[in-house]
Amino acid sequence: MKDLLLIGIGAGDPRQVTYEAVDALRSACVFFVLDKGRDKDDLVQLRKAILQRYRPEGGYRLVQVADPVRDGQADDYQGAVHDWHRQRAVLYAQLIEQEIGDGETGAFLLWGEPTLYDSTLRILDLVRERGVALRLQVVPGISSVQALAARHQVPLNRIGEPLTVLPGRRLGGHGPIDNVVVMLDGQSAFALLDDPALMIYWGAYLGTEDEVLIAGPLQAVKAQILQVRERERLRKGWIMDTYLLRRAL
C-alpha cells in the first residue's frame, strides 16, 4: 500500500496555501513534479518556491519528470485526452511504485483545487486499475475561480441564480448566459459573443506577480483582453486565465 497526498496549493500565491496543506507538505517524503518544458518552467519554479517557504529545512526528495504531451491538434478531443491520461497513468504508476518506499508518503502539488478541472484523481483511478494499491488523501485548495472573484470583489453567485462552470470549448453552445465561469479557454471563446448585456471579469496568472485583471462590459473590453492575453502569452510562453461572464441586471 502506497501513501499519496494530493495537495491543493492555490492559484499561485504561496500565501494561499492553507494550514492543512502546510501540514500535508511537512508530512511528505517525496514530491512529484511534472515538467511541461522550458516555456512553462515558471510552473515548476512556483512549486519549488512553495516547498522552500514551507519546508526550508529540506529533508525531502523532489522527483521531476517530463510530462507526456497531449495531441492538441487531434480531431477527437476526448479521445486525445483519454490517451494522454493513460500515458500519465503509466508514468504515475512507475513513480509511485519506484519512489515511495516503505513508511514514506508521496505527494503531488496541484494548482488550485484538486477536484476542480484537474485530472489527477481520474488518472489515479487508472493507476489503481494497473494494480497499484493506494491510500490517498486529498487536501483542498483555493481555486482560480475563488481567486478571480476575490480579486474583482464580486460574489460568484447572485440571489436565486445558478452558477455554471464550464470549459471554453463549451461556451458557444451553452445558450443564454446569466452567471458562467469559464476555464481552460485557449481560443478566447468570449470574443465570439455579441450580447451587449454581458459583463466580463477576467484574470490571468492569478495569485502571481504577473497577475493581470480586466473587467467591464464585454463588448467594450473584449479587444483589450485579447490584446493583453496575446501579449502576455508571447512574453511568458504560456497563459492561464479564467473569467466570469455575467448578465447585467
UniProtKB/TrEMBL annotation:
Q: Gene3D superfamilies this protein is in?
A: Cobalt-precorrin-4 Transmethylase, Domain 1, Methyltransferase, Cobalt-precorrin-4 Transmethylase, Domain 2
Please name the GO terms of the biological process aspect recorded for this protein, alphabetically.
cobalamin biosynthetic process; methylation
Q: Keyword Chaperone, does the record have it?
A: no
Provide the protein name: Precorrin-6A synthase (Deacetylating)
Q: What is its EC number?
A: 2.1.1.152
- Enzyme class, first EC level, given as a word: transferase
Give any GO molecular function from the UniProt entry: precorrin-6A synthase (deacetylating) activity
Query: What metabolic or biological pathway is this protein involved in?
Result: Cofactor biosynthesis; adenosylcobalamin biosynthesis
What Pfam families does the record tag this protein with?
Answer: TP_methylase (PF00590)
Which taxonomic lineage does the organism of this UniProt entry have? Bacteria, Pseudomonadati, Pseudomonadota, Gammaproteobacteria, Pseudomonadales
UniProt keywords (A-Z) are: Cobalamin biosynthesis, Methyltransferase, S-adenosyl-L-methionine, Transferase
Entry's InterPro entries?
A: 4pyrrol_Mease, 4pyrrol_Methylase_sf, 4pyrrole_Mease_sub1, 4pyrrole_Mease_sub2, CobF
Ranges where the Tetrapyrrole methylase domain occurs = 4-220
